[in-house]
Amino acid sequence: MPAHRIHDLLESALAELTPAPLLVAFSGGLDSSVLLHALAASPAARARGLRAVHVDHGLHGDSTNWSRHCQTFADSMGVELIVRTVDVTRNPGLGLEASARRARYGEIEALLAPGEIVALAHHRDDQAETVLLKLLRGAGPEGIGAMRPLRRIGRGFAWRPLLGLPRAALRDYAEQFQLTWIQDPSNADPTIDRNFLRLQVIPRIVQRWPEAETSIAQSAAWARAAAEFIDEEAERALARTQGLDPSTLRFREWLALPQALRDPVLRRWLRALDLPEPTYYQAAELVRQLGEAGEDRQPCVRWPGAEVRRYRDLLHALPPLQLPPFDWAAEFDGADLALPMDLGTLRLAGEAGSPRLARRLQVRFRRGGESLRLATGEHTRELRDLFQEAGIPPWQRGRLPLVFERDGALLAVADLWLSQTGARLLEPLGARLQWIARDMSPSATGGARPRIDLGDALS
Ligand SMILES: Nc1ncnc2c1ncn2[C@@H]1O[C@H](COP(=O)(O)OP(=O)(O)OP(=O)(O)O)[C@@H](O)[C@H]1O
C-alpha cells in the first residue's frame, strides 16, 4: 500500500474526531512508529498540539535505551515526548503482559486531559489475534467485539485509526520512509498466547483462507454492534433487578433475564461495586452453581478479589470474607476495642464519650449454641433463630462481635441485640454498645441491620 493512502486515511479519520488535543501512545515498535510518523506529517494533527507518550515498564534490560530511542525519534519529528516509568507489580489474577498493559493504560489515562484523544497503533492483524484470543477464552459478544476504533478511556478517548489496515501496510510504510524501530524480543516468545497465534496459527489460517483477517474483523464488528445494543439493555435490566442495597441483586429476577443479558448485567453490577470481574468461565460457572442450588442452600462462587453469594433471593457481591480466629477473645471495659481483621471497633457510647464498666466483660465471636434473653423478650432465644428472623446472611453471623459476662452469659450481639442483664448493666450508665464496622453497608448484615438502642430495648 502506498504511503499516501495511510496519510489520506488518517486525514479523513481525524476530520471525524471532536476537535481535541491528540496524544500518540508510542512504544517505539514498528506500528506506533508508523502512526507517530504519519501523524507528525499531518497538519490537522499538528493543529491539535500533537504529543506522544512512551511508557517504560522496566521489564527489559534494554528499556532505558528504548526510551532514548523514542526520544530521538520524536525529536527528529519535532514532537514533544512524555516518558513515564511504571513499576509493574504483577497482579495475581493476571499474567505479566496483562499486568504491564494495565499499568500502561493507567499511566496514559492519568495523563489525559478532559476530552483528549490518545491514538493507539493497533491494526487489523492485532484485531484478528484479539478476536481469536477472546473466542478461546469463551467470550460473549462484548469480548468478541474486540477493539473499538474509538472508545472512552479515563477522561478522554482511545482512538485506533489503523484498525482496518493490515500489518503489511505498516511495514511497507516504515520501509518506504526508512524508519528505525525497536524489536522487542518478547514479541517472538511463542509461550505468550498472542505471539503463538500470530507466529504459528494465523499464518496457517491465512494460507488456507486468504481473506480470514478481513472476515474475522467483520465478525468482530457484528459482535460489537450486538454488544452495544445488549449493553444499553443491560443498564436498564440492572436498574430493575438490583436490591435496595446496590451490593445485592434480586436473584430470581436476574435468572429470569434473557440469557444474553445475564452476564452483562452481572458485570455492570460488579464494576459499579469496584469488584474484579470473573473470567467468562467463572461467570458461566456462577450462573450454573447459583441457579442449580436449592432454595435452602447458600451457594458461593469466588474468584480472585471477589465472591458472589446467594442468601434467600438476593445475590451479594463482596470482597473475599474471612472469619475471625475461632479462639480470639478480648477483655472489654467500654473503651474502644479493636476487633481482629477488618471487623472494626466495639465500644460503649454514652452522653459524654465512652463510659467505663465496673467489671470487665469478654468479647469473642460465635462458636455455636449461643442464646440470650432479649431485653424486650420473655424467653431465652437461640442466636441462630434471631439471625434467621432478621435475615442476617450466614457468612456475616460469625463476624459479629458477641459480648459475654465472665460467667459465660451472652449480654449483647454487636449493636443488634441486648440481653436483659446487658440492659441492666448499661442503663445506669446511659450507654449503648456501638459497633463501628469498616463495612457498614447493609449487605454486611444482609440488608437488615436492626439497630436497637438501649432506650428502645428497655421500653
Ligand atoms: N510502552 C508503551 N508506551 C506507549 N504506548 C505503548 C507502549 N506499548 C504499547 N503501546 C501502544 O499500544 C499499542 C498496542 O500495544 P502492543 O503491545 O500491541 O504494541 P507493540 O507490540 O509494542 O506494537 P507497536 O509496534 O504498535 O509499537 C501500540 O501500538 C502503542 O500505540
TrEMBL record:
State the top-level EC class. ligase
**Matches recorded under SUPFAM superfamilies:** Adenine nucleotide alpha hydrolases-like, MesJ substrate recognition domain-like, PheT/TilS domain
The record's subcellular locations are: Cytoplasm
Sum up the protein's function in the record's words.
Answer: Ligates lysine onto the cytidine present at position 34 of the AUA codon-specific tRNA(Ile) that contains the anticodon CAU, in an ATP-dependent manner. Cytidine is converted to lysidine, thus changing the amino acid specificity of the tRNA from methionine to isoleucine.
Keywords, A to Z, come to: ATP-binding, Cytoplasm, Ligase, Nucleotide-binding, tRNA processing
Tell me what organism the protein belongs to. Dokdonella soli
Q: Which PANTHER family match?
A: TRNA(ILE)-LYSIDINE SYNTHASE-RELATED
Instruction: Cite the domain annotation text.
Output: The N-terminal region contains the highly conserved SGGXDS motif, predicted to be a P-loop motif involved in ATP binding.
Q: What is this protein called?
A: tRNA(Ile)-lysidine synthase
Q: Where is the Lysidine-tRNA(Ile) synthetase C-terminal domain?
A: 361-435
Superkingdom, taxonomy of origin: Bacteria
